[in-house]
Amino acid sequence: MGTRWQDKPPLQLIAEQTALQQTEEDIEALRALTMQERLRMFESVCRTAMEFEAVKIANGLPASEPTPWPASTRELLRRFAQRGPA
After folding, report:
1. Can you spell out the DSSP letters for 7-72?
2. Residues 6 or more apart from 51 whose CB is under 8 A from it?
3. Nearest Cα to 53, choosing from 80, 77, 85?
4. pLDDT for 23-77, tens place per residue?
5. Does 2 score more than 60 pLDDT?
């Protein structure tokens, strides 16, 4: 069972409350994004994942199993790569 809040040091309680508040603020910030901003964020995350996977393979590590993205995402990345950066 988890630690009761009364048993936690005050600084830990403050840190946990601050992290929770920050998480709620982060979620609100994501909800406030426009579709264009969401698309740019999604493309950035996909590009980073693709680069990370390429570096892993180039350094002799096995490819991720299962592939880190579904076929529909690979298709989006393929079209994005053909279009080039905006």
Report:
1. GS-HHHHHHHHHHHHHHHHHHHHHHT--HHHHHHHHHHHHHHHHHHHHHHHHTTPPPPSS-SS-HH
2. none
3. 77
4. 888 888 888 989 899 889 888 988 898 898 889 999 999 988 776 678 888 787 7
5. no
Q: What's the rounded Cα separation, in Å, for the pair 39 and 44?
A: 8
Residue 63, C-beta contacts closer than 8 angstroms, at least 6 positions apart:
53, 56, 57
**Residue 86 scores a pLDDT above 70:** no
CB 66 within 8 A of CB 39: no
Give yes or no for a contact between 23 and 15, defined as CB atoms under 8 angstroms apart: no
At 60 the pLDDT is: 93
Sign of the alpha-carbon torsion through 42, 44, 49, 50: positive
